[in-house]
Design goal:
Elements lengths: L32 E6 L8 H10 L3 E6 L9 H8 L19 E7 L1 H8 L6 H12 L3 E5 L1 E2 H4 L2 H12 L2 E3 L3 E3 L2 E3 L3 H17 L3 E6 L3 E3 L5 E3 L5 H12 L3 E6 L11 E4 L3 H13 L2 E6 L6 E3 L19 E3 L3 H4 L7 E7 L4 H15 L3 E10 L4 E7 L6 E4 L1 H22 L1
Parallel strand pairs: 1-2, 1-3, 3-4, 4-6, 9-12, 9-14, 12-13, 14-17, 17-18
Antiparallel strand pairs: 5-8, 7-8, 10-11, 15-16, 18-19, 19-20
Helix pairs in contact: 1-2, 1-7, 3-6, 7-8, 8-12
């Protein structure tokens, strides 16, 4: 199997004509058909956004609406979100039986949870979910209710009973004394992670991002600039694909919304220590996107240098050790990034090949300073063992291409093994 960069492109199969179309941002759920059950909670108003978010990840969504849910959201809204009719009733086609790949109950009301826990199948949705539990297919639920209901012994007992027979409870957003509906995009990412986790075998990936600091005193420092947007997009996509993501981040304004663990690391030494700990703790691949300082001050003064006692200040810098050279993931999957100015295509390819050899990379991403900013991103990709580089345009496209490289290499290794 060859891990071609072109494989990153999101599948368009779930798009619909006109107003029903969604813009795919990922292929993480391509091939999945998911029944989404909307029950009676005010959180039902967010179900439209959840369905659209799942479709943006490539899923086909079949919406189900309970009578209680219909008090908060209309069948028309869910039909628009999913691009297909809503199911509400029993039918002669036995549509209440589990035939799709997974079921998500969002929101899950206390009433529906009670029906499920006690095996009642007198409604289409309780029969559907019971069929999923009986078939061993994934069922995810997001309880939405007032805290007093969530804490009630009967509700807690029902949740424990359901968890024991295979239902996976996803955390609600705890706010204002309520178990509220999570941010729909984040919930879709969590669902994708859970559904894909078994396929990737619990493997972990280290992602470094953001910028490091070299301190002059306890207040002042020098640093590169990194928005964190690309690192966040890569970490989120790897998480959607089911990987355990160990994110080590320096200073940056943008952080990933979904990850397994996130560790702050302000200095080069902090970042190296956290990255090594992630590799020692189970991360088998490394995506090293942090903007790490190449030069750091030779001395850090304790406290704050007084600005009233001196007119000029000289800071002596020393070359910092290359963290990328010290990190050796056991899978051999190691992605490096290089930012340069005034690149020609020929120089970029030579630089990429040299970088791969110097740091034992499986993939290098070369960025031209003139083609990278908050809105634009054009990168040159070169994989080890492949002579021809490819150009990828757009931050999300770069993120998906890097994740596809990691995923394809892991898949290839598994097949060879």
């Amino acid at each position: 199997m060859t891990d071609q960069i072109a494989d990153w492109r999101p599948n368009q199969a779930t798009s619909f004509e006109g107003d029903l179309q969604v813009e795919p941002i990922s292929s993480a759920l391509v091939g999945w058909t998911i029944d989404v059950v909307v029950s009676g909670s005010i959180g039902a108003v967010e179900s439209v956004r959840l369905i659209r978010s799942l479709r943006r990840l490539g899923a086909e969504v079949v919406p189900w609406l309970t009578d209680g849910g219909a008090q908060f959201v209309t069948p028309l809204a869910l039909a628009w979100a999913a691009g297909r009719d809503v199911r509400r009733h029993f039918s002669g086609t036995a549509s209440h039986l589990a035939t799709a790949d997974a079921c998500i109950i969002a929101p899950a009301s206390a009433s529906l949870l009670a029906r499920l826990a006690h095996g009642l199948t007198d409604t289409p949705t309780s029969a559907l979910v019971t069929s999923y539990l009986g078939s061993g297919r994934p069922v995810l639920a997001v309880p939405n209710m007032h805290d007093s209901l969530a804490a009630a012994p009967t509700v807690q007992r029902n949740l424990h009973m359901l968890a024991a027979i295979g239902l996976r409870v996803l955390p609600a957003r705890l706010e204002e004394g309520k178990h509220k509906f999570p941010e729909p995009r984040v919930l879709a990412d969590h669902a994708a992670h859970i559904l894909n986790a078994a396929r990737v075998g619990g493997r972990g990936v280290l992602v470094t991002m953001g910028s490091t600091r070299g301190y002059i005193d306890d207040v002042r420092y020098i640093s590169n600039y990194s928005s964190g947007a690309l690192g966040s997009a890569m970490a989120e996509e790897l998480y959607r694909l089911g990987y355990q993501t160990q994110v080590v981040t320096g200073a940056c304004p943008v952080r990933p919304k979904t990850y397994t663990q996130l560790t702050e690391a302000l200095t080069n030494a902090d970042m190296e220590a956290a990255a090594q700990a992630a590799l020692a703790g189970g991360a088998e691949a490394a995506v090293l996107a942090a903007s790490v300082l190449d030069f750091i001050p030779t001395e850090r003064v304790s406290g704050k240098i007084s600005s009233t006692s001196i007119e000029t200040m000289t800071v002596t810098m020393r070359k910092a050790a290359k963290i990328i050279a010290k990190l050796q993931p056991k899978s051999g999957i190691k992605v490096g990034f290089k930012l340069e100015a005034m690149l020609t295509p020929e120089r970029a390819e030579r630089l990429a090949a040299d970088y791969i050899r110097a740091y034992d990379l499986s993939l290098v991403v070369i960025n031209d300073l003139a083609k990278v900013d908050q809105q634009r991103h054009e990168a040159l990709f070169l994989q080890a063992g492949q002579g021809q580089a490819q150009v990828v345009t757009g931050k999300q496209a770069v993120a998906l291409a890097v994740a596809a490289h990691v995923h394809a290499r892991f898949t290839n290794h598994a097949q060879l093994g």
